[in-house]
Amino acid sequence: MIREQIDELVAHGGFPQDLAAVDLIETHISYVILCTSKVYKIKKAVNLGFLDFSTVEKRKHFVEDELLLNHRLCPVMYLRTLPVTLHEGRYVIGGTDGEVIDHALEMERIDNALEMDRMLARGLVHTDDIDRVLEVLIPFHRGATIIRGKVTAADIASDFADVAGITEYCAAALGPAQAAALTASIAFAKYFLATHAELIAERDREGFIRDVHGDLHAGNIFLTERPLLFDCIEFDAHYRRIDLLNELAFFTMELDFAGYPDLGEHLMRRYNSDFPVMRTAEEESLYLFYKLYRANVRMKINAIRAQQVNDAPEQAKRKALFEGYFNLYSAYWTRLKAEA
Predict the structure, then answer these.
(1) Interatomic CA distance for residues 105 and 165, integer angstroms
(2) What number is the average pLDDT over the span 182-193?
(3) Both ends of the chain: CA-CA distance in Å?
(4) Number of domains forming the structure of the chain
(5) Is the model's pLDDT at 49 over the cut of 90?
(6) CB burial string 127-142: b at 16+ within 10 A, e below
(7) 24 and 63 share a domain?
(8) Which of 109, 125, 171, 235 could lock 179 by a disulfide, CB 3.0 to 4.6 Å apart?
(9) pLDDT at residue 340 is higher than 80
(10) Distance CA 163, CA 207 (A)
């Protein structure tokens, strides 16, 4: 569905149980329609290279995968998939008449005030909240499927180098010196990974590559009584079947970005005490590299989003986020170079 159709659905469409839409959130890959007690998520018809939702059949497949995969961590939140139909000029979620034009994921609506990133912004997240998240995360990681032979230094270098696609945006947003630094950092990452290729291979052999969440950060956690870790990556298993240090680095990178590095340090101490995954100085360097990589991902997403939207305030917001992640990325890169 395109934005005009989504707007029509929100304004005049039909929803299960006669619910009414009260808000619409747009991300770079999805439309999220908030009703009073439920949420309906519809994937955008986009092909961004790293994901392809360009056809109705593909969106149906990935909506079903999203339901299945997120049942691992929060079945109470992810409910069912539903068709979106067009019947007599009206869009309906869950309808039985008319033409099926798309597919939606139905979720239980959780109080947005409990989103961890919002709570961080209000200074309401403490070490005991991190401990509660780890009570869910560590057993999940322990029991996650071990994946072997799918992660190599060359694979990671290729993923990392995708950030080269936003060099022009970086130059326009921040200047040519920053764009040149971004290019230089890609060369450094290739060097770093080549020198740590055996460590990456050894961690593969030891079973540290697992099918996990893949997009674990404060914006994808509700601090309910039992924390809900939601919105795992469904569009490509490659981004979900990763080193546990890579998974943890996304979480702690975001805590750094929010201004709470102490919470990230607590998280790693507690996690590593219960489930040792970072045992040597070389593994600590790899963990720092993964934080660099995750800042890379955030830069890329905000650059893409800034170029997708036409709304000036939203563009300014995305540009500011891009700059913030670029600064954090640069700080990680400086630390890694000093250690190299």
Answers:
(1) 31
(2) 96
(3) 48
(4) 2
(5) no
(6) eebbeebbebbeeebe
(7) yes
(8) 171
(9) no
(10) 28
